[in-house]
Amino acid sequence: MLSQTPPPPPLDRAKRFATRLEAADIASAVSLARAKDRPAVRALARASEIGSWQALFALSAATLAWGLVSRDRRLADAGRGMLQAGILASLVKTTVKRTVHRTRPNVLMDEGLYARGRPGTGIGPWQSFPSGHAALSVAVARAAGRAYPEFAGVASLGAAGVVAVQVVRGAHYPADVLAGALIGLAAEAVSHGASHPTPSGRGEEEPAL
Length: 209
Fold this sequence. Notes:
The protein is mostly helical. The protein has one domain (36-193). The protein is built from 8 helices and 2 strands, in the order ααααβαβααα. Strands 1-2 form a two-stranded antiparallel sheet. α4 runs antiparallel to α6 (132-147). The model is unreliable at 201-209 (pLDDT under 50).
């Protein structure tokens, strides 16, 4: 019987490193979510639903509508940017969730079950990666802060709070919210760039000779 060829050392080391990272991610999530069933944490979890796609889409649409009705161009631009960033972030995170699955920390803690892999699923407890709350909260907050720089800090702080609660409530692993936040940042940057293209061919004029 022929023995299997062992994987190249670099690949083997990469796999071991990835395994250690995942183990640390799981351990951190379990440790941080130890109080998930306490009333205070449950109250925070309910409050963090301001970061759900339903709430953020409603907020963004209302901001856009009020800006248009009041003829406040800045407010309308803010609402439009929030809506565009949120929609793109939602599309990306949903695509990833439908591609891969990962059970949530509360499933591991309550049922002793942990699984990850492909394909994705439409079952909520198996949709831990990435965090949709993180993706949309960061995207919308970044868009709002871009339109109103004076409130950028407050918007970012609010988004950070929503992101943190997802780990404390046992809904996501740290890696899930990190991935979601990166999706949100990228989605806002792409949507803003698409709606505000940089003029091309307008370089500095050459001085006349």
